[in-house]
Amino acid sequence: MKSFTRSKQILDHNRRFIPGGISSTNRHTSPTVCFTRGRGSRLWDADENEYIDYHAAFGPQVLGYHHPKIEQAVLETLETGSDLFGSGPSEIEGQLAERICSNLSWADRVAFLNTGSEATAAAIRLARAATGKDHLIVMQGGYNGWHNDVACNLMTPVDQLGARRSPGEYEFHPISAGIPEMHQQLVHAVNFNDLDSVRWVVEHYEVAAVLLEPILQNVGLIKPQPGYLKALRKLSEEMGFLLIFDEVKTGFRHAIGGYAQIEDIAPDLAVYGKAVANGYPLAAVAGPARWMDYFFHEDTSKRVLLAGTYNAHPVPTAAALATTDVLLENDAEVYKRFEVLGARIEQGLSGIYSSAGVQATIVRQGSAFVTYFMDHAPVDWHDLASNHDYSFDERLRHALLEHGVFFFPLPTKQCSISASHTENDIDQTLKAADLALSEVMTSQS
Ligand SMILES: Cc1ncc(COP(=O)(O)O)c(C=O)c1O
Fold first, then answer.
1. Do 61 and 83 lie in a common domain?
2. pTM for this model (two decimals)
3. Same structural domain for residues 31 and 107?
4. 418 in ligand 1 pocket by Cβ < 6 Å?
5. Three-state SS for 404?
6. Whole domain around residue 367: which residue ranges?
């Protein structure tokens, strides 16, 4: 058995000064693993255990830890005397904006913030300003950040949700205390892949926007059904609400233009974060000038406040420029490599599960994948929560940890391969998975 003694000591110490001991509640795991170093596809914890990583820090590490080109860009920025000045534009923010816009066929402008939550908050506010409407539709099983509009209806237990509702909406199930009741009235959670429910809500309320991850990647990977996103695009034009893609997880990971590029859809706005800067804090809202110029509307009563002391800080901005450089190298061949590595792990895992007689469905998009222990790929959260074997999933993740493979040890959490992973990493992971699976099966028989 691995020892996590030092990790536990660190948590115990931190608890005296930080609520819960960790600066993001979402980072709590059992056992507590405190990582101290990362390089490429590998992580080391405070007890010197080594892992092949598939967590990617919840998604940002698309190129791998301490990628030399990102490190170099960051160091060069510091060496030039560049810093946060808080006055006037910077050349580098313009360079990054041009780079991003030139890779999004449908967007003219981009605004930079620090986190995905800030970016979704800004996009929602803009949608309200532009439409003059207040209500918002989100997806049951989607995650769009921690603020009042979106801190709801994530992994809501089915016994709280009740029977599947369609067409219709679920009650607001907050994932945080302190969200005013009045605010909750403005937010409507519907099933992913359920157009009728979106139409139903729009017919009942004044809806400013639908905000959704184009693939639900905070509950594994729930893909859009063929035609769903295009139909949503059409509906938004017919019914007068904005379509906002939350590409914080999908953006830059699946394609340089995000999942919108893959399905050839032009949302009204898209929000990015995570992989755009390979681990540095940068987020963005992008869209056509028609909407984005509300952030600098000439009529100041219509202007949507875009502000932030640290927005487009030169260090993460340089990291993002360098990350996009690497992603675009050789005609963006890294995405082909993701496909090769992704297919290798998918086929390998699939063979392991079927030889062991385990009912499993692997869902994958490029470098991101998850195994659902159920007989089909879920279409929405209600389907997943009703059918997935959570306990088996959790036990397997714990067994993998013991074999030096870090799948975030919480059921349904999605795995990500980085550009630093090798075929050898994947093959070692498959050997570990084979062993871990037989241990889990032996312990339950
Ligand atoms: C799809 C999505 N949107 C928004 C967010 C919020 O981003 P941040 O944690 O940077 O505030 C996340 C974070 O996991 C996310 O996965």
1. no
2. 0.98
3. no
4. no
5. coil
6. 5-66+333-444
Q: Which is nearest to 305 in space by CA: 313, 297, 295?
A: 295
The distance in angstroms from the start CA to the end CA of the chain is 21
Residues in the chain: 445
Instruction: Say which amino acid occupies 142.
Output: G
- The mean predicted confidence, pLDDT, of the chain is 98
Q: 45: Cβ below 6 Å to ligand 1? A: no
pLDDT of residue 248: 98
Cα 123 to averaged position of ligand 1 atoms, centre (Å): 13
State phi, psi for 156 to the nearest 5 degrees.
-65, 125
Mean pLDDT on 142-158: 97
Domain stops at, among 273, 298, 330: 330
**C-alpha dist (Å) from residue 85 to 76, 118, 243, 387:** 17, 21, 35, 53
To test the pocket of ligand 1, the residue of 27, 217, 248 to mutate (highest count of ligand atoms within 8 Å of its CB) is 248
Do 87 and 216 sit in the same domain of this protein?
Answer: yes
CATH code (residue 361): 3.90.1150.10
pLDDT digits (tens, 9 = 90+) for 277-330: 999 999 999 999 999 999 999 999 999 999 999 999 999 999 999 999 999 999
Which of 113, 143, 252, 408 should be mutated for ligand 1, with most atoms under 8 A from CB? Answer: 143
Q: Is the CB of 280 under 6 A from ligand 1?
A: no
- Over the stretch 346-365, which tens digit does the pLDDT of each residue have? 999 999 999 999 999 999 99
Q: How far is the CA of 249 from the centre of ligand 1 (A)?
A: 7
| Calpha distance 171→189 (Å, rounded) | 7
What is the predicted pLDDT for the residue at 444? 80
Q: Which residue has the CA at smallest separation from atom 8 of ligand 1? A: 116
pLDDT digits (tens, 9 = 90+) for 268-278: 999 999 999 99
Residue with tokens 């997806």: 139
Six-digit token pair at 198?
Answer: 């979106």
Q: How many domains does the chain fold into?
A: 2
Cβ neighbours of 370 (radius 10 Å): 24
